[in-house]
Amino acid sequence: MSESIAGVQIPDSTLAREATELVREVASPLLFDHSRRVFLFGAMRGREQGLHFDPELLYVGSMFHDLGLTARFRRTDQRFEIDGADEARRFLHAHGITGELADRVWTAIALHTTPEIPLHMAPEVALVTRGVELDVLGIGYHAVSDEQRAAVVAAHPRPDFKNRILAAFTEGIEDRPETTFGNVKADVLAHFLPGFTRGDFVEIIKNSDWPE
Questions:
Q1: Alpha-carbon gap, residue 113 to 188, rounded angstroms
Q2: Can you give the pLDDT at residue 1?
Q3: Distances (CA, A) of 101 to 1, 90, 107, 140, 160
Q4: CA nearest to 105, candidates 118, 114, 116, 115
Q5: Are 36 and 156 in contact (CB under 8 A)?
Q6: Which residues pair with 9 in a beta bridge?
Q7: Among 98, 147, 173, 210, which one has the highest count of C-beta atoms within 10 angstroms of its own C-beta?
Q8: Rounded to an integer, what distance in angstroms lies between the CA atom of residue 104 and that of residue 121?
Q9: Dist CA 155 CA 72 (whole Å)
Q10: Which three-class secondary structure state does DSSP give residue 175?
């Protein structure tokens, strides 16, 4: 029987169950619970806004969005968002979901730390970002009720979440600091990685090989 949390049904297909098992296996409880909350809050925001979305696609996008922070899927040559996006697309292809639908989930994960742009795209893309923004940044905190929030946190607790998620971000990207240029994760390394020097867009232009 499908599980319901705060009035949101957790998808119970083979694909969704295998996604749950994979993330539970490779991610810390911190990231697992966070990813489930992202789905739940994203679904709530979608329902509140009257959006029509595919719950399975939103679930995979939410559950896989931080896989690039895990030891198994973490690379050092690209942004962590792309690590998770690539794995989600491979996972969906293995389950017969290809083409635009798989690409939609890839986009949802790849853009989930890029402000505003995802909100103008397909509902699943927008709602992964909505879920992340609510759980991590508190954006849209009052768009869901106190009772809904309490039910979600009861099912997926967030003890000392602010400090622990910042530590997880740092651990997941500290060996590829150059990939944070132009995105919000540069702020994380500026706070927590000694010796980190933030890339400067203006200086890059001024110091390029172009003579003028």
A1: 12
A2: 59
A3: 26, 12, 10, 27, 36
A4: 118
A5: yes
A6: 4
A7: 173
A8: 9
A9: 26
A10: coil
| Euclidean distance between CA atoms 113 and 129, whole angstroms | 7
Going by pLDDT thresholds of 50, 70 and 90, the confidence category of residue 2 is confident
CA pair distance 145, 167, nearest whole angstrom:
29
For residues 156 and 104, give the distance between their C-alpha atoms in angstroms, rounded to a whole number: 26
CB 72 within 8 A of CB 90: no
Residue 174 in tokens: 């500290």
In the numeric block, which tokens belong to residue 59? 């679930």
**Residue 4 dihedral angles phi and psi, to the nearest 5°:** -125, 130
Retrieve residue 150's tokens.
């309490």
Question: In whole angstroms, what is the distance from residue 68 CA to residue 65 CA?
Answer: 8
Rounded Cα distance between 140 and 160, Å, is 20
User: Which of 167, 185, 3, 155 lies closest to 81 in space, CA to CA?
Assistant: 185
Q: Which residues are bridge partners to 8 per DSSP?
A: 5
**Considering only CA atoms, which of 15, 158, 170, 160 is closest in space to residue 80?**
170
pLDDT digits (tens, 9 = 90+) for 125-165: 999 999 999 999 999 999 999 999 999 999 999 999 999 99
